[in-house]
Amino acid sequence: NLSPNHLDKHRDFQDYIDAKRAIFENQRPDARLILNQDDGHTEYYAGFSKAHISYFSDKHPVEDGAAALDGVIYRIHDGVSRAVMKVSDIRLPGEHNVLNYLAAFSAVEGLVNDEVCAAVARSFGGVEHRLEHVRVLRGITFIRSSQKSGLQMIYQNMNRPLSEKSQTHQKSVVRCNPKLYQQKHPLSVMQSSRTH
Questions:
Q1: pLDDT by residue for the chain (196 residues), tens digit each?
Q2: 32-36 and 80-86 strand pairing
Q3: Which of 37, 126, 139, 149 is the right S-S partner for 57, CB 3.0 to 4.6 Å?
Q4: Strand ranges (DSSP E) for 22-178?
Q5: Distances from the Cα of 23 to the Cα of 18, 122, 139, angstroms
Q6: How far apart are alpha carbons 23 and 130 in whole angstroms?
Q7: For residue 42, what are the CA distances in angstroms to 34, 37, 56, 143, 171?
Q8: Which positions ≥6 away from 140 have C-beta within 8 Å?
Q9: 114, exposed or middle or buried, with CB in 10 Å at 0-12, 13-18, 19+?
Q10: Which residues pair with 174 in a beta bridge?
């Protein structure tokens, strides 16, 4: 996935794009590169790869990799697809986490079976203070995030379609580290709604 995160560490967005490219430029042909089929930079990255490329998508079928279609996650190898789990069974909130699991399932194809992949996605609740689910109270989901990139992900996903699971809780309150608000983040309006 490529989104304008960590720009404080790079000259500009192109520098960030090139830094990501450096991660895989020296892969051998027997390695595997995982790319988001729906990202506008995928074709650019594919042109630099010597490795086998697997794709993932939450919008379209793929030839090799993983896809989320009609609420189901599929793993695809040599054009043959296998249903792994329902998207709504993923424990971590957010459409970006669906994409993260699609990428992970693609990366471990042939190494980790479908049952183990599904079990991890159903049980892993995330790390402390990173989009951490706190509780649901009167229909409101409380989430804690003290990471700047966590804030960016929340902001980016505000206008994306909700997954089946997130539709069950229509309101969310996010408590974040107040120091992050000094950076004039678009979510700074949330600073006033404190949770305990």
A1: 666 666 778 888 888 888 888 989 999 999 999 999 999 889 999 999 999 999 999 999 999 999 999 999 999 998 899 999 999 999 887 888 899 999 999 999 999 999 999 999 999 987 776 666 777 888 877 777 665 555 555 555 444 444 434 444 345 555 555 554 444 444 444 433 433 3
A2: unpaired
A3: 37
A4: 32-36, 52-57, 65-69, 72-77, 80-86, 132-137, 140-145, 171-176
A5: 9, 29, 42
A6: 24
A7: 10, 6, 11, 32, 34
A8: 169, 171, 172, 173
A9: middle
A10: 143
* Look-up of token digits 């309101």: 171
- 196: its two tokens: 């305990």
The pTM for the full model equals: 0.72
Which pair of tokens denotes residue 112?
């980790």
Both tokens of 162, joined, read 């909700």
Q: ∠ at Cα 107 (131, 41), nearest 5°?
A: 75
